Amino acid sequence: MPPSPAATSWIRRSLVPSGLALAVLAILWIVLVARAPLDGMQGVIQKILYVHVPCAFSAYAGFIVTALCSALYLWSNDERLDRLAAASAEVGVVFCTLVILTGPIWAKGTWGHWWAWDPRLTVTLLLWFIYLAYLLLRSFTEGSARTARFAAVYGIAAVFAIPLNYFAIELFGGAAMHPDNLERGSLGTGMGWPFAVGALTGLAAYLHLLLLRADLEALRAEAVHPDPGWDR
Amino acid sequence: MSVLLAILWKDLVTEWRSRDRITAMLLFSLLVVMVFHFSLPGGATRETQASAPGLLWIAYVFAALLGLNRSFSLELENDALAGIALSPVDRGWIFLGKTAANWAVLGVAQAITGCVFALVFDLDLAAVAFRLALVVGLGSLGLCSIGTLFAAVAVRTRFREVMLPLLLLPLLIPVLLGAVRATAGLLENGTLAGGPVQLLLVTDAIYLIVSFLVFDYVLDE
Amino acid sequence: MSEPALRASGLGKRFGRSVALDGIDLELPAGASLAVLGPNGAGKSTLLRLIAGLARPTSGSLTVAGTPAHRPEARARVGFIGHASLLYPYLTARENLVFAARLQQAPEIAVRVERWLEGSGLARVADLAVSHFSRGMSQRLAIARGLIHDPSLLLLDEPFAGLDPRAATRLAEQLASLHAAGRTLVLVTHDPKRAAELSDRAIVLAAGRVVFDLRGDEAGAAALERAVLAASDSAA
What is the CATH number of the domain that holds C40? Predict the structure, then answer.
């Protein structure tokens, strides 16, 4: 079905508030990160964590959104959900790439080597491959009626693979080298706020980019076949 | 259910008459053994037995990829897939029939490849034959279930030979982990480790159920 | 039998960005015989595939005897003969029919298959692999394959293509007697004479829309030919 004007305006209207929220959070985050205490042993390198962790949240959130929209799309056949799924994947893969780039930088600074096959890193790498496969699938069926449906099927199947892979690797894979920093207690003093704001900023960035991308897709779809209500 | 059996029968009869899938899979597996021998520092011998389980499953995955692609490209001839899609049953049964056929054909290839590995690496498979068959069966069920789903998807995209491995490999990690660990455990000390087998069972169940439910959307035009 | 055999209401089908069918309204009572004509690319095959349940509509609705066409219950009532033969080259004629009958869950498979092999004149080659068949033989087998489960709604996509005159006459007789026995027929064809001979109503499609809907006397061969030409011109 061609997109109704209402769909695009909802996304369009959210762009400004989400952009503002992102700007505010980003400024707050930069200030907090700059003023956060330097870790005694790791030095400045440790601050890259404030980028690495929020990106990880967004990368995983991105694929969950893609999978959810895929399932809803298959059920309802509403094209907007498919566009949202695609947009989420494109934004999510960027965050995932950032995680994989910032991770080794931090690792080299603290553990001494660029890469280690610990569970979280390995699963994030797998997530990256899954994202790329999803996007490749979309482009290799470009223009076909099946693009949306095949991508949705893959999104749904792949989302199950993520927790499965995590448990599998944790049970049998390499030794865990990630600090277990999800509990507040293990963070040093003064690190709590930058982390929290960082996480919010990361999610806000993801959300804003998602809306931008979804809007672009809606515009593109509408340009190709305009709503008949407009010209009949 | 009868549709599942009909498809299984049809695929097996076709495979028996043409023998193209099994030949390709076997030839490929044997070539792979030779490649392993030249890639391993100590060659593929008794001394490098420890690598055998992992390499065996790599060989199995490659063979599976070959067979899976073929299983649906056959259906595209004469638009036969439409003939199957016309069946007045829940299309998940079509998926199960195809998966069962792929599993059976892969199983034959796996058995023979396993024997070749046993020869080369000087492994004693007879002692653990039964349990090994169970592990291999569970592992390839995981391979074939999600593999059949994605083969049906990949066969109608461009570059289908490339698409299938790209889609499939990340999702096969849990299957491979469980299967390799279980196989290694069996070969080292004859015990069937509970953890890996449980992982295989859970993964197989999830992949089978998800594929069954979404297969309808893959067959639609 | 109050439900029409076929009802399409605002039926539309899009493939990505191209529109194959656009706003088709059609109602066909049980036992009717409809011919579908039109230039290439008009959407005739797409329409048939939608009725067969092979594809889902992207807009509007389509029911077969009251049930949405893509549901399994609707597919049970439909017999589809497409452009391609839907046959497996490595299987014999008999095996192809047995497989089709099992897929369609038809009862008394052995008896049924023998009957159709006889009726299609293929009894003597029943155990020959289809890869050795001539075009005409494959076509006859394809038709048997599509009708093996005695469906009440028959969908035929250019079934006369590739048949020699004798086989074509035989098929026309077969279709006429099936129609006389109460089956509903939807026949896509390029041949206005066959269309007029076998059906009492004809629609002409162009660019996914119904441009002519002719019944009874209006649906004579000459009239159909003019209509198709007019449709081709308007679509060009």
Answer: 3.40.50.300
Task: Please enumerate in sequence order all residues whose Cβ is within 8 A of that of C161, keeping only pairs 6 or more positions apart, or say none.
Answer: C139
**Per the structure block, which two tokens stand in for A88?**
């989420």
Which residues are paired to C212 by β-bridges?
C204
The ipTM, to two decimals, is 0.89
Query: Tell me, what's the pLDDT at C154?
Result: 94
Total domain count for chain C? 1
How far apart, in Å, are the Cα atoms of B84 and each of A125, B12, C157? 38, 16, 17
> Is the Cβ of A154 closer than 8 Å to some Cβ of chain B?
yes
Q: What are the distances in angstroms from CA B155 to CA B13, B118, B149, B158, B162?
A: 22, 34, 10, 8, 10
Structure pTM? Answer: 0.86
Per-residue pLDDT, A232: 28
Alpha carbons B72 and B69: distance in angstroms, whole number? 6
In a domain, C188, yes or no: yes
Cα–Cα separations (whole angstroms), residue C32 to C6, C35, C177, C184: 10, 10, 13, 5
Closest CB to B221 among C55, C88, C105: C55
**CB distance C187 to C175 below 8 Å:** yes
Residue C85 lies in a domain: no
Pick the closest to residue A82 from A220, A227, A202 (CA basis): A220
Cα–Cα distance for residue pair C146/C185, rounded to 1 Å: 13
| Tokens (6 digits) for A37 | 């205490």
Nearest to B165 by CA among B83, B78, B63, B91: B63
Is residue C2 included in any domain, yes or no?
Answer: yes
Partners of A2 on chain C (C-beta within 8 Å) are none
